[in-house]
Design goal:
single chain; alpha/beta; Four Helix Bundle (Hemerythrin (Met), subunit A); Rossmann fold; 434 Repressor (Amino-terminal Domain); eight-stranded mixed β-sheet; 20 helices; 8 strands; 9% strand; binds guanosine-5'-diphosphate; binds magnesium ion; hydrolase; signal recognition particle
Length: 439
């Protein structure tokens, strides 16, 4: 399967022991994985350098299980970057807690405002008020009102004719008079940062002295988010982040960059359009996601646990010297079997998530089972020299394996292609991909 997996495998199947050079190879995988997840280049560079330094400092190479130690360090460092402790909303002990939303248009401010209001009401026992300060888009007020109704939190508005600042002033007064203890201000966004918006938000901030200014960060946005976050932070000094749309398939690496630029914690994760699709932030889960769902690292771990390293290495050698036969193919099928489902393996490889969705595990397993049955029906001589297989032998094998002669031919074609490929390529484990042709 893919070059990527082959390389990761090679890293650990190589000398059986981690050296500085194959640790570099492993870290290169980590680096690629982070870049694919849209983590900023500089952030990745620093991160990898940092991990390497830690690994060398901890004498990882002398450890009993160096591969797993590198894995552990990578995870720990990533979690560290994402913010280890669980952040909480800062409440005002002597008065109303003001929370202001900020972010570009469409990033999920309005939705998040309502979700947070619901959370405060249900989980923190707060008397919450929502305020509609997005007066740019008339539909935004209505949207907030609808959301407010669904969670039974009142929404304060003076309509679209009043400015955001005047709305905020009136809302503040209203909250005081009516015993609200937590007020969430939904604000307008723009497609791009502009001065008018920033001025409006700054004036609101100066008036409200909010305990929290929450920047919504859309996980689907790529690298642009870095610039946006920097601007918002410089002008408003945001206090925390809300990561939105994590229900999509984006890996969310942009968050790592935003974290490192703003240096504020992530408070919540929004993962759906419904008002209860809000979660507290878990750095460990996010770390795994950014590394590539299930991640290349756990694949390395798994491979290390389950692969018969010696056997894999010897069959690789045989391949490269052109001696690869059906026995080797059979042992490779068995190795693959031990790694678990194909879908599972694909999901662990960065960038292969989509493909995993297209794989039918049952079908794959059935194919492999069929191929194993065919090889098992061959005599030792036939396995060693599949080129002697002519019509009568093929017929006998097909019968024995309970398949059609065409299936036997397919396997032979794949085998020939693999053998040819293996002679052309040096290094890697091309035999891991028997599905190149025919099957
Ligand atoms: P705003 O312009 O920043 O206020 O963004 P909205 O709150 O209006 O959200 C923009 C769109 O994104 C709406 O269609 C929301 O339903 C949707 N949305 C917001 N948060 C999420 C989320 O976490 N997941 C998904 N799938 N959609 C979301
Ligand atoms: Mg909005």
């Amino acid at each position: 399967l893919t070059e990527r997996l082959n390389r990761a495998m090679k890293t650990i199947t190589g000398q059986g022991k981690l050296t500085e050079s194959n640790m570099d190879e492993m870290l290169r995988e980590v680096r690629m994985s982070l870049l694919e997840a849209d983590v900023n280049y500089q952030v990745v560079k620093d991160f990898v350098a940092n991990v390497k330094e830690k690994a060398l400092g901890q004498k990882v190479l002398d450890a009993l299980n160096p591969g797993q130690m590198v894995v552990k360090i990578v995870k720990e460092e990533l979690q560290q970057l994402l913010g280890n402790e669980d952040a909480q909303i800062h409440f005002n002990d002597n008065g109303i807690t003001n929370i202001m939303m900020a972010g570009l248009q469409g990033t999920g401010k309005t939705t998040a405002a309502a979700k947070i209001a619901r959370y405060l009401k249900n989980k923190k026992n707060k008397k919450a008020l929502l305020v509609a300060c997005d007066v740019i888009r008339p539909a935004a007020i209505e949207q907030l009102q609808t959301l407010g109704e669904s969670i039974q939190v009142p929404v304060f508005t003076l309509g679209a004719e009043t400015s955001a600042l005047d709305t905020a002033k009136a809302a503040d007064q209203y909250a005081k008079e009516n015993g609200f203890d937590t007020v969430i201000y939904d604000t307008a966004g723009r497609l791009h940062i502009d001065e008018e918006l920033m001025n409006e938000l700054s004036m609101m901030k100066d008036f409200l002295h909010p305990q929290e200014i929450l920047l919504t960060v859309d996980a689907m946005t790529g690298q642009d988010i870095v610039t946006v976050a920097r601007e918002f932070n410089e002008q408003l000094q945001i206090t925390a982040l809300i990561v939105t749309k994590l229900d999509g398939d984006a890996r969310g690496g942009g968050l790592l960059s935003v974290r490192s630029i703003t240096n504020v914690p992530v408070l919540f994760v929004s993962n759906g359009e419904k008002v209860d699709d809000l979660e507290e932030f878990h750095p460990d889960r996010m770390a795994e996601r950014i590394l590539g769902m299930g991640d290349i690292l756990s694949l390395i771990e798994k491979a290390q646990e389950n692969m018969d390293v010696e056997l894999a290495a010897s069959s690789m050698e045989r391949m490269q010297s052109g001696q690869f036969d059906m026995n080797d193919l059979l042992s490779q099928f068995e190795q693959m079997n031990r790694l678990g489902s194909f879908k599972g393996i694909l999901k662990m490889i960065p960038g292969m998530n989509k493909m995993a969705g297209m794989v039918d595990d049952d079908q794959m397993n059935a194919q492999i089972k069929r191929m194993r049955a065919i090889i098992n029906s061959m005599t030792p001589k036939e396995r060693a020299r599949p080129d002697i297989l002519k019509a009568s032998r093929k017929n006998r094998i097909a019968k024995g394996a309970g398949v059609k002669v065409a299936d036997v031919n397919k396997l032979l074609t794949s085998f020939d292609q693999m053998k040819m490929m293996s002679q052309m390529m040096s290094g890697g484990m091309p035999a891991m991909n028997p599905f190149g042709g025919g099957f």
